Amino acid sequence: MEKVAIIKYNAGNVCSVDYALRRLGIEPVVTADKETLLAADKVIFPGVGEAETTMNFLKAQGLEQMIKDLKQPVLGICLGLQLMCSRSEEGVNGTVDCLNIFDIEVKKFIPKRHEDKVPHMGWDTIGHLEDDLLKGLNEEDFVYFVHSYYAPLCDYTIAQADYIQPFSAALHRDNFYATQFHPEKSGRVGAQVLRNFLDL
């Protein structure tokens, strides 16, 4: 059986990812141990939280460079996606430097109409699906989002969503994959995304 590791750090949502993988018959290890992470076949970098605090924690634990050096398939989820970008506007004093795996700056949603609520929260469709990570999905499928910040469309975009403006619902560069939506909370569709990641 493949060894799947979930990075343990000061951001929530680790438990729901763990449960989602167990429903697929995988018994992941939740760990911050570098040797265990480096030895895993697949690594998942989930997160719910705030970018600057989390980056400071990753640096303090020595996890920042280790994540960038991983050679196996890595999946970032929600905050995980945002931290894999170059910078984020979610800093106490403005922008904060992130992991720079995807060379793009994370922006804050700015409402344009009265009905534009931030955070973007709930079920939404994704389109322009262009990667094996999204195999078996179609453009009518719904996934679950909760976020106030977004990665703009870019060369790494493999799926788009539209809320206030189009943004990256998923990214891919080399062995690094990321979803802004939560596959672990997206029912059948999310389970397919996790299955696809495990099959990479």
Uncertain regions spanning at least 5 consecutive residues: none
CATH homology superfamily: Class I glutamine amidotransferase (GATase) domain
Strand content: 25-35%
DSSP summary, beta strand count: 13
Instruction: Output mean pLDDT.
Output: 95
Number of helices: 6
Secondary structure category: alpha/beta
What is the ordering of alpha helices and beta strands?
Answer: EHEHEHHEHEEEEEEEEEH
Structure explained in plain terms:
The chain is an alpha/beta fold and 200 residues long. The protein has one domain: Class I glutamine amidotransferase (GATase) domain (Rossmann fold, 3-Layer(aba) Sandwich), CATH 3.40.50.880. Helix content is 26%, strand content 34%. The protein contains six helices and 13 strands. It has helices spanning 14-23, 34-39, 51-60, 63-69, 79-83, 187-199; strands at residues 4-7, 29-31, 42-45, 74-77, 85-91, 94-97, 102-108, 120-125, 142-147, 149-150, 157-163, 165-173, 176-179. The strands form three sheets. A seven-stranded mixed β-sheet has the order 2-1-3-4-13-12-11. A four-stranded mixed β-sheet has the order 6-5-7-10. A hairpin with a 2-residue loop joins strand 5 and strand 6. The protein is globular. The two termini are 14 Å apart. The model has no long low-confidence stretch (mean pLDDT 95).
Helix and strand layout, with pairings?
Elements: E1 4-7, H1 14-23, E2 29-31, H2 34-39, E3 42-45, H3 51-60, H4 63-69, E4 74-77, H5 79-83, E5 85-91, E6 94-97, E7 102-108, E8 120-125, E9 142-147, E10 149-150, E11 157-163, E12 165-173, E13 176-179, H6 187-199
